[in-house]
Design a protein that fits this description.
The protein has 12 helices and 15 strands. The chain is an alpha/beta fold. A hairpin with a 3-residue loop joins β14 and β15. α4 packs parallel to α9.
Length: 401
């Protein structure tokens, strides 16, 4: 039996035993192997019909009444409570709205202000030096606004960078280029031991693996919803503020939506209680309600089952790449150890941009990160083992051609 036939037979058996296989029917998909859900998740089948109702009935017929009658006003907290179980948080700690960039800024400035409540001398922000660029931009601006020094360090060196001057630490749970999963529990504990406030970016972990925000005492966290949560292009991000910190969280963007009396129109600002402190202005209702419908795909699904399949998919992909791709043509940047791996595989490859273009032409969609990285994201809700085998086989054929 050839390697191709053997791998295909294995994929068929793995798909037959996949307890999440039926979830694929909850998405709008075709015969393309879609391995870019770590950039934009596929469209859930429930979204178009729900949006049609939002536009035609809620907006078209009810108009202004929908802020009350259709629950528009409470959507940021209601949808936050639906995301909460996926990141290991109890209800009442997540508010949905704004972009990830805006929420990073709110969280980081808020973190510095929290740290200074007990020690006014804290004047350093530690940031992941390998972070997605927007996090770094926002961290630099937050440092200028708060009079802090910004210290970019790699996650491996964070512990050594912490000290009595550290106010806040901003880290990514999963590295967006390599798929490396960082140790959130131990790094959070180290930040707390130094007397600082932790801020985690969950963009590449929420909906792909257990996070455990409450369990591990994370202070603040942010994340997007258009990747593994499948909320749609530009869907709103979210902000988590640990319950014990909410009455002290001081947002640098005190908009009318986060006022204790938003319709009181008072000139003085008084922050709302609880998670609504993270709100700013009028919510983006259309995209927010599309996200709410998209979250229906999680009904009856546990994040633990998703994680188990994610690891199985990435293991199988690496095995198939080893079989189909000639030795030396690609190098995996993604850790082999499960405890250090997110839900993607990054392969270093010569002429990666052209290789990805040819893969896409042949129905295998991943993405390319300069200068030489092929990035494949595995969304366990709709990616199967047959998809994995096909992607690796086509990659081998493209590189051999």
């Amino acid at each position: 039996m050839s390697e191709a036939t053997e791998a295909a037979v294995r994929a068929e058996k793995l798909d037959a035993g996949d307890e999440l296989a039926d979830l694929r029917a909850r998405f709008v998909l075709d015969d393309v192997v879609y391995l870019d859900g770590n950039s934009l998740g596929a469209l859930p089948v429930s979204v178009p019909g729900h949006l049609d109702d939002v536009v035609r009935r809620q907006w078209g017929s009810l108009r202004i009444r929908s802020w009350d009658e259709s629950g528009w006003w409470t959507a940021p907290e209601r949808i936050g409570d639906r995301i909460a179980p996926l990141v290991g948080a109890a209800a009442g700690q997540i508010v949905v709205g704004d972009s990830t960039s805006v929420n990073v800024f709110k969280a980081l400035v808020g973190a510095v202000r929290l740290a200074r409540l007990t020690d006014s001398g804290r004047d350093e922000i530690v940031v992941d030096a390998t972070t997605f660029p927007t996090d770094g931009y926002m961290a630099e601006s937050a440092a200028r606004m708060t009079g802090c020094t910004l210290r970019p360090v790699t996650p491996a060196r964070v512990r050594g960078a912490l000290g009595g001057r550290t106010a806040a630490v901003l880290l990514n749970h999963v590295d967006y280029r390599t798929g490396r999963l960082h140790d959130l529990p131990s790094l959070t504990a180290a930040v707390h031991a130094a007397g600082a406030v932790s801020v985690w970016d969950l963009c590449h972990s929420a909906g792909a693996l257990p996070v455990g925000l409450d369990e591990h005492g994370v202070d603040l966290a942010v994340g997007c919803t258009y990747k593994y949560l499948n909320g749609g292009p530009g869907s709103p991000a979210y902000l988590y503020v640990r319950r014990e910190l909410q009455d002290r969280f001081d947002s640098p963007l005190p908009g009318w939506n986060s006022h204790a009396e938003p319709f009181g129109m008072r000139p003085d600002y008084e922050p709302a209680a609880g998670a609504p402190r993270g709100r700013v202005g009028t919510p983006d209702i259309l995209s927010m309600l599309a996200l709410e419908a998209a979250l229906d795909v999680w009904d009856g699904v546990t994040i633990e089952a998703v994680r188990a399949k994610s690891l199985a998919l990435t293991d199988f992909f690496l095995e198939c790449v080893g079989q189909y791709v000639a030795e030396g043509r690609v190098e995996s940047l993604t850790p082999a150890a499960h405890a250090e791996r997110g839900s993607q595989v990054a392969l270093r490859c010569e002429d990666a941009g052209e290789v990805m273009r040819r893969l896409i032409e042949r129905g295998v969609v991943g993405d390319f990160r300069r200068p030489d990285v092929l990035r494949f994201g595995f969304t366990p809700l709709y990616v199967g083992f047959g998809d994995v085998e096909r992607a690796a086989r086509v990659l081998g054929e493209v590189l051999a051609g």
